[in-house]
Amino acid sequence: MRTTNKYIALAVGLGLVTLSACGSSSGSAGGDSKSVTLVSHDSWAVSKSVIAEFEKKSGYQVKVLEDGDAGQAVNKAILTKDNPQGDVFFGVDNTLLSRALDNGLFQSYEPKGADQIKPEYRVDEDKHRVTPIDTGDICVNYDKAYFSKHKLTPPTSFDDLIKPAYKNLLVTENASTSSPGLGFLLGTAARYGDNGWQDYWEKLKANGVKVVDGWEQAYNEEFSGSAGGKKAKADRPLVVSYASSPPAEVIYADPKPATAPTGVATGTCFRQVEYAGLLSNAGNTEGGKALLDFMLTKTFQDDMPLNMFVYPVREGAQVPEEFTKYGPQAEDPETMDPAKIADNRDDWVKSWTSLVLK
After folding, report:
1. Nearest of 31, 30, 35 to residue 63 by alpha carbon
2. Which of 90, 118, 163, 321 lies 20 to 30 Å from 280, alpha-carbon distance?
3. pLDDT at residue 73 in the model
4. Is 240 helix (H, G, I), strand (E, B) or coil?
């Protein structure tokens, strides 16, 4: 789901502030009872001190295998489920959850602290195959400077994006290859319904939406409001990204601006939830259970926001001031039941591809 490492790589490339991720880049469950292996997408990041605390208290050494973006990581985990690369998988979100569950990726385990998860994020409560870990909103971001310069009011809703005033301004990601791209598609399906989203996309296409393969290209190369986009002389002032992208633009800037250079069209948001689970046939189930327990502790949940730019799901976990100031969660985001996503996702993506890319 998240693109934290892309923000970090960009910050390094521009000589900005850096943030270190912990864990090795490879590892295997391998039956090593003294280590526990976490398989994740490329945006896993956690403070070294937090992992050190887990390792000290549990006696397990954490190994991390980052395996591409969310879709790639989930697909690979499914293909290797009989001989898994690790013990715990983190990073399957609600847009892909059914694929993981239907393919038997996880075994049942209810972590300690599960009762502290906010009720709206709980799923699979009869089998406990996955545990909610974090949440965030996929939303259209806008370049404040562009709209100020052109004396144009930024869009606030899906409806706004198809108006002539915003023609040729939006770039989004391919729904078949990108998690935020898929989330944006699902947001339009939730907003306009099973029979209305295709008509909406026809209008969006006619209004000049640009589609690229993934978030990195859209945000760092095509979007004029990002640090990377400015460097690349990008010309699209609207992009599908995250509600947490404006805080990242502030946090990684040096010097830090007084206000975020980008904003969020809060009426375009789709809520995403990320889950973790104990892999079927894990080599170290006890270590995996201990790690899942730890991921629900206040220590871990408090640490996540400024490392992975996500919101915690635990009651009472702290949300950084930068989030509340520069990237608050949408008050009324679009949502969709994972079962409905499961029933329609593949058909919607095929229809979207035929409609938008051909």
Report:
1. 35
2. 118
3. 87
4. strand
